[in-house]
Amino acid sequence: MKIKIYGIILASILFFSFTALNLKYKSIQNNPEVVENNVFYSFLFEFNNKIYDTFFKNKEERQKKETAFLIDIDEDSVRELGRWPWSREVIATIWDNAMKNGVKVIANDIIFSEAQNSKADGRLEEVLKKYPSQIILGTFGEGPILYQNPPYQDYCFVESFRRSGGDKIVTLNATLTFDDTNSQFEQVFFSNELKAIFDDLDQQFEKIYLQSVNKKSVQELDVYQKNSLIADKSRNLVQYCYRWLSEDDEYLKDAGQELLKAYDNTLNRIPGYDKLPSLSDKVKRFKDDVNQLLIPQYASWPANVHEIQTAAEYTATFNADLDFDGVIRHYPLIYRAGNKTNLSFIPSLALQTYLLTTGYQAVFYPKLENNIKTIGSVVIKDIETEKDVMSLPVDSNGRLIINYYGRKNSIPYVSARDLFHNDNPEMVVHLNGEPTKVKKAEWLKDKAAVMGPTATGIFDLRNTPVEKDLPGVEIHLSVLGNLFDQTFMRVPADEVKISIIVLFFLAATLAGLFLYSNLFIASLYLLLVNYGLYKMALHNFQRNLYFELLAPTILFTISTYIVFLIYIYFFETRKSKEIKNTFSKYVSKEIVEEILKNQENLELKGQKLKMTVFFSDIRSFTTLSEEMDPQELSAMLNRYFTPMSETIFGTNGTIDKFMGDAIMALFGAPLNYPDHPKKACIAALKCFEKLAEVNEDFKKRNWPEIKIGIGINTGVMVAGNIGSDQIQSYTVIGDEVNLAQRLESLTKSYKARILISENTYLEVKNEFVAREVDVVRVKGKNRPVKIYELISMGTSHPEMPFFDSYHKALNLFYDKKFAEAEAAFLDLLKTKPDDYLCQMYLERTEYSKSNPVPDSWDGVFDRRKS
Fold it and tell me: How far apart are CA 248 and CA 752, in angstroms?
């Protein structure tokens, strides 16, 4: 009863713990800083993602609406139009031709950050001015995403960003609104203060740079050095922003009255700050009051060449947002450089393309919770009707889960070369990778295009759930397709409630099965439940539902199973554990398991078993022990016993004991199995194979070669725990044991490696090659015992003809036909002169001819009586 009560309490603790875990995990999983720094949450995040990665790989590819397409910088285009990057005249021609054929918007997954030549740049500028609101330039954030920097530094980053060309990247954009009603610092600008500081930083850096390249003025620099100087200046300003208003801010430490007054005037614009007694109090209050904004932020954003950048009205980012494992599953709709409405926010390539194509507006509504500002919702509005079109299912970072359409080329694409040439009214469009000829103007009309590379040599390849090397531009097109099709992956709004119900049900059922059923049923239920959760998630995935709490729920089932397994183990197997701990000190693992299965084996009387016993011994060990150093002798024995023991264990044998240089092993006890004679014979033969390897090792160590003999017998023996109440040892006793030991000692007399008894021979004669050695009389046995030499495994042997002739000669000897036997053994010795048994029986026949044996002779040769 007690175990059941405690079990219910344990199940309740697990349920409430995992419910709290799910709530916490749900609240922080979109905060990369928190998740990345927590090993457990990172594991859950990656586990959940890996499950859904398998879903994406097996997802049926769907035909997307032909609303957007890729202007593909592919292998064919590179071969025809030249190596990338192309002349900007080529790109301008492609843009112009696309527009002439009715394309509504072109977004670029490329950047023109360096001047090419005046003619090429001028041509690109010309086309941009021709279609200023229809061509979107690209940019990207450099360096790490800034999540861990203090939030107040955003006000320095925005000034650094705009000074480095950001004022041309982020311009007035009617299609994008960030509706932040919670910002008390929206009207606070540090432009004047930071301009003076940035001017001084630029002058210092410029001076150092000119010295490093051995130039006196900027005019002496070549174009590459000028570009390098501009980029390095920008990075230098970003580095200062990390120090701004901190103890390391050199300008705050040594600030003059003019700068201090400027800071004071700026901070006084914030409500309530004018009542603080000192500037240091105002600075501290400002640093504490600024809320963290979870929208992804980069401090540095390279602009396009000035003439090109200023000619365009819209710029968007083509950054890829990698998860911790380097896979792209989420797509931020907006990035930032600082935190200022209309000054800091940069839309993604897909979002800006969608908005310009449709004429819609995206409104971002942030929300403030626990001093952290996140994205509460993103609403697409029709500017003309002022009605909501849809609400986008973004997370707190403003990211969509990308609903990929499939592998490479699943989205319509047109080779860039087909748009470069405008003399043919037809062109080839690739739909799901299949080429289709269409009328150019008819197909392109009112479509949105993204221009970017898929050619392998350009190396814009990304790791995604659907393909490890998916061209990056197809990620933007996938999201653009999601926006047009409204086929978003959505996280259920009531996911937490669903998870609580599921956790309660699983806690109750798993606990009940453990407490009232058995381990097998509980294990089977665990497998079925997790399979059911997987299939449920897969079914909902096909309906574009994404469960973020799938991994914690699966972890709950496994954890509950493991916890209850341990719980039952401690309560119901405590006695078995005590027995195991006690007996494992002096008996083998198999014996312990046998005792645990049937605890009557603890009785001293034991049991009778038909089994096989095995003895091996090193020959002339006494001489070896006298000649070797004791420590060296001990090391030698250890190196001998180890492979011998492994061989015996490998054939289901149990080492009974080591007796000096001898080994006693059991086959068929304590775990009885029918083929124990065979296992013992295999072990004996393998021991000699191992012995050859051991002797090779001994030779390298200058140790003497060793030889062994093995005796094996099968019969009924008494097996059990033998000993006193204080010390017991599992062993076997009886005449059959003694016979095996006797056979081992007889190997020396017969110059044999392995001797087996007749009982063993009768069990294995159809599986091994053996020859009869002799008939001996041993103590404790009324009738003589035939013994055999074990030769090899199998039923054939190169010397089988010799063995057959040997056995015929032996039968003549036992039939008392000694003259014929003598002739037979003489013939055998001609074939094999050194065969000891033939020599022995030749001697016996000669002796028996002159010393007749009685009629009652039982085959035992008296002169060599055992």
Answer: 89
